Amino acid sequence: MAQVHLKNVSKSYGALEVVHGINLDIDHNEFVVLVGPSGCGKSTTLRMIAGLESITGGDVLIGENIVNDLPPRDRNISMVFQNYALYPHMTVGENLGFSLKIAGKSQDQIDAAVAEAAAILSLTEYLERKPGALSGGQRQRVAMGRAIVRHPDVFLFDEPLSNLDAKLRAQMRVEIKKLHQKIQTTIVYVTHDQVEAMTLADRIVIMRDGHIEQQGTPLEVFEAPANTFVATFIGSPPMNLLDGIVQQDGTLQLGGGVTLNVPQQYTAKTRPGQKVVLGFRADNLMPCGHSLPMEGESAEIEMTVVLSEPLGTETLLFGALAGQEVQAKMLNPRPVSNGERMMFNLDLTRVHLFDGESQKSLR
Amino acid sequence: MSRLKLPQWFVLLLPAIIILSAVVLIPLLLSLYSSFTPYRLTRPETLYKWIGTFNYEKAITNANFWAAFGRTVLLLTIALNVEMLLGLGLALLVNRVTWGQRGLRTLMMFPMMFSPVLVGFQFKFIFNDNVGLVNNALQSLGFSDVAIPWLVDANLAMFSIIFAEVWTSTSVFAILILAGLFAIPRDPLEAAKVDGCTPWQTFRHITLPYLMPFIYIALAIRSLDVARAYDIVQIMTNGGPARRTELIWTMIGRTGYVDAKMGYANAMGYISIFLAIFFTIYFFKKLNAARTELGMGG
Prior knowledge:
The complex is a heterodimer.
Chain A: E1 4-13, E2 16-26, E3 31-35, H1 42-50, E4 57-62, E5 65-66, E6 77-80, H2 92-102, H3 107-120, H4 136-148, E7 154-158, H5 166-183, E8 186-191, H6 194-200, E9 203-208, E10 211-216, H7 218-223, H8 228-233, E11 240-246, E12 251-254, E13 259-261, H9 264-267, E14 275-280, E15 285-287, E16 298-310, E17 314-321, E18 324-331, E19 341-347, E20 352-355
Parallel strand pairs in A: 3-8, 3-9, 6-7, 7-8
Antiparallel strand pairs in A: 1-2, 1-4, 4-5, 9-10, 11-12, 11-14, 12-13, 14-20, 15-19, 16-17, 16-19, 17-18
Chain B: H1 8-34, H2 54-60, H3 63-96, H4 101-108, H5 110-113, H6 116-126, H7 133-140, H8 154-183, H9 186-194, H10 199-227, H11 231-236, H12 248-258, H13 262-293
């Protein structure tokens, strides 16, 4: 276990800078997830921590040491790769014990460590098999086992679940979480899947175009997104965003003649004439009679349903509001026909306002 | 008059059957048959005299034949190993090149583009004891003041032939191994780095097992090639001096066409085919084992 610090770390390929001086402090035993769309620099950042990519500027510290120029083997890290990266010519047992063998451990020590890791990951009965004879989930477990046998300071996961099917992914997510509780090590985990980020992380770091957009606990980034990018990236379905202009009388004029009151918590933070973006989640726009009881400020809105997606316990409703598509959620669902006009309650205490220019939260 | 009605499938296959018989089957059977006769090109009637396994016995008890056989195996062993090591080194170096690699790869294939006969002439000149490049260079630089008999001394002549062989064919290994290097996925190499491997350990434990199938393919192809080596030796030393660089096929060629003993030459030919078959089977077995090792299936 160790702390990891990134101090103003940047990465360029020739003239192209892909990571722009990011700062990140990761604590002992913390599970940090770097999340963002593809090309946001999250994998590059992870590979810089691993030592697989050189660092163009800034410092990477593991523990107290600057490791900028150390090769991966001297950083006491281990890494789980997206494509498992198992050694196909070795058995599962040899794969697990390879790093210990390279480190010159005795065969007894290797066997003991391999047996321990295999037991944690339920791989004991597969130790004699070659990776080619394993399923995707088993291979991923071997890859994780290979990472844990060494008791490294830091675990790095590079999109480890993206090659698995949905069911297995959910299962492995739980296993990774359990693993973290069991072995108590600092983990840096990269994914483009916000569900993985939300469910696994102690702290989420959202990246875009080589910058950190926001970091915080899953609930913090969900409840208080710093900008519209985070608002749409975190949470499923993504947050609805509507452009509007604050009026002299303190109302908010959305397109298509829809007008709302500026929510109380934002009245002091907006000025008449300001362009803003109104954001709210589907959970906060519910058809009347199919919603949770709303306390405090709310608004009634009429909307035509274009499409419905029944999910069982709830139904997602797609409609058009102020000329833009929005999603609403219906509890205790009844069948809804396309084209039906319904009244909706918008919970104004839970909406977000972003500045129209900077796209930053006005909170 | 009733017409003979042949089955349709037979008629359709007939062109192929005729061509294959004319080109492969009949010559093969004829040569096999002639190896049991004292057939001499200069006396055609000898083709009809059956002498059983006499030619085979004669070949097997001929010390010269076994000497040529052994020399061929020696050439095969040394040339293949040296070519493999040099080719591996060359491929690893070229693999590191980031700029101009395509040009380099093309350049690397130049020796393969020369006819072996020309390569033979080239090295015959280079190693010539009077006017050759090597001796001239050695003498001008003061390393030696005598004319070293590169193509006359038995060991030196063998060395010269192996040198020429290696010069032509190292690139076969280099190209195939380079293809192997391109085929290695990046992830296991990076995993090895993270697992604590030094560059040498990564090569030894990860890169090499991935390359083995490619190396065995190159070995199988080249073993067939070297086992039938004829042209370079024929040009450079003509099997001489006094048979000291005689290989199987130069010996067979001489027996068949110079001494005109075609029946005897065919018998020796059939024996030596087994050498080639043996090496091919051996390397293919190794190849399959290496592929299974990598989980690529047998």
